[in-house]
UniProtKB/TrEMBL annotation:
<protein>
    <submittedName>
        <fullName>HTH protein</fullName>
    </submittedName>
</protein>
<dbReference type="Pfam" id="PF13556">
    <property type="entry name" value="HTH_30"/>
</dbReference>
<dbReference type="Pfam" id="PF17853">
    <property type="entry name" value="GGDEF_2"/>
</dbReference>
<dbReference type="InterPro" id="IPR025736">
    <property type="entry name" value="PucR_C-HTH_dom"/>
</dbReference>
<comment type="similarity">
    <text>Belongs to the CdaR family.</text>
</comment>
<dbReference type="InterPro" id="IPR042070">
    <property type="entry name" value="PucR_C-HTH_sf"/>
</dbReference>
<dbReference type="InterPro" id="IPR051448">
    <property type="entry name" value="CdaR-like_regulators"/>
</dbReference>
<dbReference type="InterPro" id="IPR041522">
    <property type="entry name" value="CdaR_GGDEF"/>
</dbReference>
<feature type="domain" description="PucR C-terminal helix-turn-helix">
    <location>
        <begin position="323"/>
        <end position="380"/>
    </location>
</feature>
<feature type="domain" description="CdaR GGDEF-like">
    <location>
        <begin position="157"/>
        <end position="272"/>
    </location>
</feature>
Length: 403
C-alpha cells in the first residue's frame, strides 16, 4: 500500500469504508459502556455518525481544503436529539475510538496517509467542539428568554396552564418554600455569581432584569439525605450573601410562600416594599417587605392593609380582655397609663398588664414608637373596613314618593 498513488489509495479507502465502519462499531461496543447501554435507535444514530466520519475523511483526504464542511458532513447525519443525549465528552470518546480503528487498519499505509489521519482527527475534534458550543449558546439564549418570560409572569401574577412546564424546562430544582427579592440592577448585570451562591446554599433561582430592577426568585431545594427541612438556610441569609451583586439602593425580600406557583404573592409584596423603601429613615438591607407594612398600606397596597387587619386588629378585637379599647385609648391619651386607666375606670397596673399582653400576643410592643404606629394604623384600617362593610351591607330602599 505504501507504493500506491493518491488515486489508488482513495479507491482502496472507498472500497474499505464499509469494513472500517463495521470494525469501528464493534470497538465502540467493546470499549464504551455508555454506547452499550443506549437503546438500539440511538446506537444506530451513533453508527451513522461514525460512518459519516469515515466517509468524510475520505472526501477530506481527496481535498484537504474542504475542512470547513467537516461538521456538516459528520454531525448532520444524526438526528438533532442525539446532540442532547450524547455529551461532548462522549463525542470525543467516539472520535478517539474511530480514529484508533482507522489508524490500526491503515498502520501499513503511507506516511502521508497517517499524517492525514492525525490532522483530520484534530479537525473533527474542533468541529465537534464548535457544534456543541453553538448548541449551548443557542440553548442559553432560549433559556434566557424563557426565564425572563417566567419571571415576568410571576411579577404580573398572570399564570396559565403552561407555567409549570416552562419552569420545569428551565431545570428548576426548588421543591420547597419560595421568596422573591427585588433590588436595583447594576450595570452590567452578572447573574452567574448569584447562581453560584444559590447552589452553594442549596437553593435555586430564577433571575429577571426589568429596566433598573433586578428580580430574583429563590427556592429551597429538597433536603439532602439526613437533613430536615428545618436545616434549610433562611431566605434572608441567602439574599444577604447575594447582596454585592445587586446595585445600590433598596433590596427588598418578599414573604415566604409554599411553592414557585405561589411566588406572585411574594413578588407583589417585594415590589410594594421596594416602592416605599425610600420613605424609611434607615431601611435595612435586605429589607423584609413585611417590615414596611404601614408604609405599604399608606401607599395603597391592599395586601398590606389586609395583613394589618387580620394579624393585628382582629386579634385585638377578639381578645376577652378588651385589649382593643385599652390600646386605642392608650394611644389617644398621649401614651399615658394614668389617663388611660382613668378613662377606662381601671387601675394603671391593669393597663400596664394589658399592654404587656398586647406585646406578647402581637410581637408588636405598643410602648415602642414604631410598633405603636403600626398597631394604631391597623386599628384605624380595621375600623374603616368594618364601617365600609356595614355600609355596603345596607341596601338602599325606595319610598313610595320616589317611584
Amino acid at each position: 500500500m505504501a507504493e500506491m498513488t493518491k488515486e489508488q489509495t482513495l479507491h482502496w479507502l472507498r472500497n474499505s469504508s464499509g469494513e472500517l465502519a463495521t470494525s469501528t462499531l464493534a470497538r465502540l461496543e467493546d470499549t464504551l459502556p455508555w454506547y452499550r447501554e443506549m437503546p438500539p435507535s440511538r446506537r444506530s444514530s451513533v453508527g451513522m455518525v461514525a460512518q459519516a466520519g469515515i466517509t468524510s475523511f475520505i472526501r477530506w483526504y481527496e481535498n484537504p481544503d474542504s475542512s470547513p464542511w467537516i461538521a456538516s458532513d459528520v454531525f448532520n447525519a444524526a438526528p438533532r436529539e442525539l446532540l442532547r443525549s450524547v455529551s461532548l465528552q462522549e463525542t470525543l470518546q467516539l472520535i478517539k475510538v474511530t480514529v484508533e480503528v482507522v489508524e490500526e487498519y491503515l498502520r501499513d499505509g503511507s506516511k502521508q496517509l497517517q499524517e492525514a489521519i492525525l490532522l483530520y482527527s484534530r479537525e473533527i475534534a474542533f468541529a465537534a467542539a464548535d457544534v456543541y458550543a453553538r448548541a449551548a449558546e443557542a440553548r442559553g439564549l432560549w433559556d434566557q428568554r424563557l426565564e425572563a418570560l417566567v419571571v415576568d409572569s410571576i411579577l404580573s401574577g398572570e399564570f396559565d396552564h403552561e407555567m409549570p412546564s416552562r419552569i420545569a424546562a428551565l431545570g428548576w430544582s426548588g421543591t420547597g418554600d419560595v421568596a422573591v427579592a427585588v433590588g436595583t440592577s447594576p450595570r452590567p448585570v452578572d447573574v452567574d455569581p448569584i447562581r453560584r451562591v444559590a447552589r452553594h446554599m442549596n437553593a435555586d433561582v430564577l433571575i429577571g432584569v426589568q429596566g433598573s430592577r433586578l428580580v430574583v426568585v429563590i427556592g429551597h431545594r429538597s433536603p439532602e439525605e439526613g437533613d430536615s427541612p428545618a436545616d434549610a438556610i433562611a431566605f434572608a441569609e441567602i439574599i444577604q450573601a447575594m447582596d454585592e451583586w445587586f446595585g445600590e439602593g433598596p433590596l427588598v425580600l418578599g414573604p415566604t410562600v409554599a411553592s414557585v406557583l405561589d411566588a406572585a404573592t411574594s413578588a407583589r409584596a417585594a415590589l410594594s416594599g421596594f416602592a416605599v423603601a425610600g420613605s424609611l429613615r434607615q431601611p435595612s438591607r435586605p429589607l423584609l417587605a413585611d417590615d414596611a407594612l404601614p408604609e405599604r398600606a399608606l401607599a395603597g397596597d391592599a395586601i398590606a392593609r389586609a395583613t394589618l387587619i387580620t394579624d393585628i386588629y382582629e386579634p385585638l378585637r377578639e381578645h376577652p380582655l378588651d385589649l382593643l379599647s385599652t390600646v386605642w385609648t392608650y394611644f389617644e391619651t398621649g401614651y399615658s397609663l394614668e389617663a388611660t386607666a382613668k378613662e377606662l375606670f381601671v387601675h394603671p397596673n391593669t393597663v400596664r398588664y394589658r399592654l404587656k399582653k398586647v406585646a406578647d400576643m402581637l410581637s408588636f410592643d405598643p410602648v415602642e414608637a414604631r410598633d405603636s404606629m403600626i398597631i394604631h394604623l391597623a386599628i384605624i384600617l380595621g375600623h374603616i373596613a368594618e364601617r365600609s362593610g356595614s355600609q355596603a351591607s345596607k341596601k338602599p330602599t325606595l319610598n313610595a314618593g320616589s317611584r
